Amino acid sequence: MSEEQRMSHEEFVKKAIVTLRNPKYKGIHTVYSGFNEAFKKYFPGDDPIKVTNQLASENKINIRPVKGGVMIYLPEDAPNIKTKGEDALDKILGKS
User: Fold this and answer.
1) Calpha distance 62→79 (Å, rounded)
2) Residues 26-38, buried b or exposed e (16+ Cβ, 10 A)?
3) Residues 6 or more apart from 9 whose CB is under 8 A from it?
């Protein structure tokens, strides 16, 4: 595949989320879906964890820790999950 035809990291990750997700879910598990392995084959030498963390820091995807790895989502599809700290702070401040 020529360099012009290759997808960028962002394009690859977003396409993977849409094509690999189970219809019941909005995101994909990076390990169980085969995403990490596919990423390493498409981008030899690149680290899928580093790339997905970078995309998340740029708000291009969302990452949620789960058993056995992480789930990645398109920003508009990510569940709104509070961390334990956020939940505790809300309780302390009487917001929940």
Assistant:
1) 9
2) bbbbbeebebbee
3) 43, 46, 51, 54, 55
CB 43 within 8 A of CB 3: no
Q: What is the pLDDT of residues 27-67, one digit of tens each?
A: 999 999 999 999 999 999 999 999 999 999 999 999 998 99
The reply to whether 3 falls in a domain is no
CATH code for position 17: 1.10.10
H helix intervals, 43-83: 48-57
pLDDT of 85 reads: 77
Reported pTM: 0.80
Q: Assess if residue 1 is contained within a domain.
A: no
